[in-house]
């Protein structure tokens, strides 16, 4: 999901673990990216930092939201984990509660792999489209999770987030100031909310990963503009992708368009390779950077613009 620069001091970081963390740090300290050392959190150092799981999947940070009459988000109640039939192929991390992190080395697909990626991506897109139709005031994010879970398993696939590093749900629902990877719970959506729904399915041994932000009821002009500009950033970044193109051009493209509309870019959360592994190289930064690497033919990765 995207977040306007005016809301940044109150952004929430993601998942819940065994405790609720309150953060009073300013956003530059929470989300600063730096290409060397220091205390700035960077996905470049994620393997030494126990991988994506510690950074994205094991905590929920709560902060007051300034300059708004809306109540800040608070974690609701979680329903029990939903079962998956034994007949469905599961990713190797399921039930281990281990931190898989980012798999080293770019994955380049053969012809069969590309067809499998198309199938998993197609199913993920269909699930996402259906989930978006459920967004309306009064609907609980846990109800969205239940519907997503059921549709995925009915199609013979596994919901990739379920069990990833202990993540308890089958989809990510990030409302308002939650940046990404929010956990579905008992909170009901309210008129004026925006919600990002992040769907990943594991079908025939390949992960298909996609997300979009939806409007709930009568949404403010500022929120609509935020979502529009973020989508433009994504479209522009996708348009430059081709074999041989430097990966760092993705970040520059996104950052330049965000600057044009006077939005900031959240730097901690990144795109990533996806395929047989949920999170793999390359790490795709969404801000200007000097990282190396070029796109390869038959390589698949995500771009998750957060501005």
UniProtKB/TrEMBL annotation:
One annotated GO molecular function: metalloaminopeptidase activity
Does the record's keyword annotation contain Protease? yes
Transmembrane portions of the chain: none
Q: Where is this region: Disordered?
A: 67-105
Q: Which EC class heads this enzyme's classification?
A: hydrolase
Keyword entries, A-Z: Aminopeptidase, Hydrolase, Metal-binding, Protease
| Protein's GO biological process | proteolysis
- What domain of life? Eukaryota
Which EC numbers does the record give?
3.4.11.18
Question: Catalytic activity annotated for this protein?
Answer: Release of N-terminal amino acids, preferentially methionine, from peptides and arylamides
Q: Which CDD domains match?
A: MetAP1
Q: Which cofactor does it need?
A: Co(2+); Zn(2+); Mn(2+); Fe(2+)
Similarity field: Belongs to the peptidase M24A family.
| Function field | Cotranslationally removes the N-terminal methionine from nascent proteins. The N-terminal methionine is often cleaved when the second residue in the primary sequence is small and uncharged (Met-Ala-, Cys, Gly, Pro, Ser, Thr, or Val).
UniProt-recorded name of the protein: Methionine aminopeptidase
Q: Which organism is it from?
A: Linum tenue
The major lineage groups are:
Eukaryota, Viridiplantae, Streptophyta, Embryophyta, Tracheophyta
């Amino acid at each position: 999901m995207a977040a306007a620069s005016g809301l940044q001091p109150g952004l929430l970081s993601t998942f819940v673990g065994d405790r609720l963390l309150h953060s009073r740090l300013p956003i530059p300290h929470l989300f600063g990216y730096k290409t060397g050392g220091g205390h700035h959190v960077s996905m470049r150092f994620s393997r030494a930092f126990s991988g994506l799981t510690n950074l994205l999947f094991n905590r929920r940070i709560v902060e007051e939201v300034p300059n708004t009459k809306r109540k800040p988000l608070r974690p609701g109640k979680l329903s029990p984990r939903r079962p998956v039939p034994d007949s469905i192929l599961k990713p190797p991390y399921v039930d281990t509660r281990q931190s898989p992190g980012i798999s080293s080395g770019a994955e380049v697909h053969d012809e069969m792999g590309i067809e499998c990626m198309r199938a998993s991506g197609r199913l993920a897109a269909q699930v996402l489209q259906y989930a978006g139709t459920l967004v309306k005031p009064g609907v609980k994010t846990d109800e969205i999770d239940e519907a997503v879970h059921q549709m995925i398993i009915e199609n013979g696939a596994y919901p990739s987030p379920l069990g990833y590093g202990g993540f308890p749900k089958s989809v990510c629902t990030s409302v308002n100031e939650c940046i990404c990877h929010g956990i579905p719970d008992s909170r009901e959506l309210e008129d004026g909310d925006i919600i990002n729904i992040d769907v990943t399915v594991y079908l025939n041994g390949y992960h298909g990963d996609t997300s979009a932000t939806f409007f709930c009821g009568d949404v403010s002009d500022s929120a609509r503009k935020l979502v529009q500009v973020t989508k433009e950033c994504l479209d522009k970044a996708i348009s430059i992708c081709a074999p041989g193109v430097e990966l760092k051009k993705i970040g520059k493209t996104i950052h330049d368009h965000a600057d044009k509309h006077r939005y900031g870019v959240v730097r901690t959360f990144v795109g990533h390779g996806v395929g047989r592994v949920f999170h793999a190289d390359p790490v795709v930064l969404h801000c200007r950077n000097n990282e190396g690497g070029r796109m390869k033919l038959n390589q698949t990765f995500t771009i998750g613009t957060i501005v």
